[in-house]
Request: fold
Amino acid sequence: MNLATPPAWSLWAGDFGRDAVYLAAFLFTASVVCWLLAPRSATFRKAAPITLNVGILSLFASFVSLGVLFAASRFEYSYVFEHGDLDNPLQYRIAGIWSGQQGSFLLWACASGLFALFTVRGTGTLRRWYSVVYGTFLAALAGILAFESPFNLNMVDGHAVVPQNGAGLAPSLQNYWVVIHPPTIFLGFGALTVLFAYAFAAMVEKDYTTWLPKVRPWGLVALSTLGLGLCMGGFWAYETLGWGGFWMWDPVENVSFVPWCLTAAFIHGVIVQSARGTKKSANIILGGLPFLTFIYGTFLTRSGFLSDASVHSFAEMDRSALKLLMGLMGISFVGFFGLFGYRAWQMSKEAKAGAATVKPNSKTLDESKPVAESSPYGREALINLGIATVSAIGVATLIGMSIPFVQALKHQPSKVVEEGLYHQVLTWFFIPTVLLMAVAPFTPWKNAKGKDLASRFYSILCISVGFAGLFLICLVFTPFGKVVDHSPVVTLLGFHNVPGLAWIVFLVGACSFCIVGNGWRIWELRKASRLGWAPFLSHIGVAILMFGLIVSRGFEQKDQVMVMKDHPGKGLGYEFRYRSMTSNEKDKNNKVLFDVYSADDPKKLLFTAAPGMYKVPVEGGPDNTMVWPAIVHRPLYDVYVSLRPPQNEASDPMSLKEGDAKVFGGFVIHYDKMSMTGQPGQPGTAFVANLTIDDGKQKRSVLPSLELGSEGAPVPHAAAVDDNLNVEVASFNAADRSVTLQFQLSSPMYPIDVFHKPMTCLVWFGTGLMTVAGLLAAAYRRAPSTAKAAEKAPVAASGKNRRLAKQNS
Reply:
């Protein structure tokens, strides 16, 4: 430890960051008070937005201050010490800001504040209560940061202690995804606050319609950024965890997935209300639920209840900060649903009295058009059904991720719900959701007849079946089929294992139906609506993404290979030959090189796999071996090489008495006697096990020993059994002269799991398409006047385009 006084500038930067958080908490509280008192005084009306904006800037200043401390590696701060390291490059030092509890809360506060700066001015008549809700939330986050502060010093006897180096990022975080994934997904979390604040303000003002065009683009931004962040997390898991998949339904993953599902439901509810004037109450609820479920998920993951049930680790929060988080959660839930219940009671009362239920200034988006009676086959009914199914996916996942919490409350061991159970349950909602994504865009809002719709979709269905058939042919008759498992096994109904080929092809066909249907719709709308096709392109992105996930997991091939120096291993048509390590086992960038040859042609080098491996010292115990996979990308599949920690021990301990013999592998081990050299109890004294090894061809003497070290600790000396195997004495029993032997490999054995992961490229492509299309849709809806102008623009003179315009009306 270096006990020198930290530089004055560092102490000033820490004080500045801490004080900026305190100032932000005060300013947000002041802003809420000013907005509440705004009707009474012009002074309060002027001060309210200023205090909110300055508070947000204070959060940004605190974030910058923490970034400076990380960039400069100021380890006198506990948080910097825990997540910083002199050996890390600059991007990982910056990523240390959000790699722990305190920094992630600061990132969440800054992301939410950023959206407040962008949205408050456009809220119109809802601005007062929108700002009250937003300011209250930001004040709560700033309050949490006041207790969960990243600016606490390492103190000893009242003096700041400056360690020579920091503990550094957790090994699993040292990947480029740590730099881009958290900021992206926290932007999505920040955007959820916009939806919640709008929904709450709309209820206060009893304005259930005019808030929709304002919130719609921000809902699309939230859906796109949160979806992108979710997929980035999957890519991160795929490239580092080594189990060969993108998603394992971990509770922390689900905390992000549930709000995404509910945001998707909200966006489609907005579509229905905008076109039909219905779902006003439902959209209020759907607008608030994504934020509320994320607050609940944050409580689950940061309270310590899921510490034993998640691969993601978050330290348990400071008790005062946790109480603030629980208070925020309680106020949010009670306030939102309490107000909703009160407004519902009011509307019911007014309806009974025959009074109007909507304010005079609360107009539908198009009052000039009377709302026609809905058809059971119309677009409204189908979208409503889709809202129900995608919401059911979110709710079922919410229940699943809450199971460990319920178990913890019952003082039972927390156990995560297994991946297979999620698949069993959610498939029942996934299939109709995908089919509705294909059908609903073609269905008119009114005058829909079942016979007409069946005729309309027949061509699309035929093309989709053709795609599924073509895919099935490729599985069997093309080189692609060599990297695909032709006989996957699927568990249906939770207990019944069935051949999975037909089931997986059916799922692929459902995704193809969605892709073809929405592609057809985009082609029809290419001239009728500027960017009006973007939502359908987003549907295609989701379907392609799911296509890739289903095929890459359902048809994956897997084999296990054991490789030693000069002893290759074979699996999936490859021969793995150990070459070398790029550095040493203490180097974080060390890789183990395996030359991969064709098993059919041992002279044909196909590629070199370079999975990572290094050892992390553990105080008071053996080193912890960290490994991560190597992925070789091919156009239609990935070769996924997952290295597990190398093995040196070839057996469990074996105890023998003098004269005993035991079989190990192809050897018979005879323990003849124990002999001793040196004086008993003196350093250098050696106890020798006289062994005779019989391999069936010859017998030879092997003499492993156990020597007393200078400090009395025994030091084993191994003896070679053959070129690959050593034997050492683990312990002697002087009373009965028995010996315990341990067999070890002379060089490490590397266990490898090798996968063929077909069509993983579609996961990446679908993610990009979904995100870009969602942001294009948000830009299209950014200015209501532009959207209306586009809808009223002249349509091309062809009869086909006139029919399309009529259907879209």
